[in-house]
Amino acid sequence: MKIVKFGTALLFAGCSLALGLGAARADDTLFQDLGGRDAIVKIASDTTDNFLADERIKATFDNTNMDRFRRLLGEQFCQVAGGACAYTGRNMHDSHKGLHLTNADFNAVVEDLQKAMDKDGVPFATQNRFLARLAPMQHDIVTK
Asked: Using one digit for the tens of pLDDT, what is the confidence trace for 7-32?
């Protein structure tokens, strides 16, 4: 997986891998490098704030319970990073079907996540490792 940064936009090349959460749990180095559970929950919260402030995608969340969303995003980020966390939400396909999200929407989400990680002091190499684990979700999120 190659992630290339252009300004604040990230482009993913070779996103055809399936997300292996079992493999992520086996190596919690990324979890530790992100700062552990509390830091990851903060990243998820800051990312959510960015989504709600982003004119490109904020309407997507109009009918969303944002407290629940923040909690689930924190769980998901923690699990994907390799922490001993359990994501209790729906799978990405079921969560996003019917939203008709585009690659532009997905890119906005990635940019908002990157802004949160920048704000929270996550080193660029660690950001790329985390984004590489999240990138395969694009196939279940982008439906248009």
From this structure: 444 444 333 333 344 444 446 799 99
Q: What is the pTM of this model?
A: 0.80
Distance between CA atoms of residues 41 and 58, nearest Å: 20
| Averaged confidence pLDDT in the chain | 83
Q: Is 55 helix (H, G, I), strand (E, B) or coil?
A: coil
Structure tokens at 114: 């990157």
Nearest alpha-carbon partner for 76 in 7, 130, 144, 142: 130
Token duo for residue 87:
């994501």
- The CATH superfamily holding the domain 2-13+22-141 is Globins (1.10.490.10)
Burial class (CB in 10 A: 0-12, 13-18, 19+), 1: middle
In the DSSP assignment, the letter for residue 143 is -
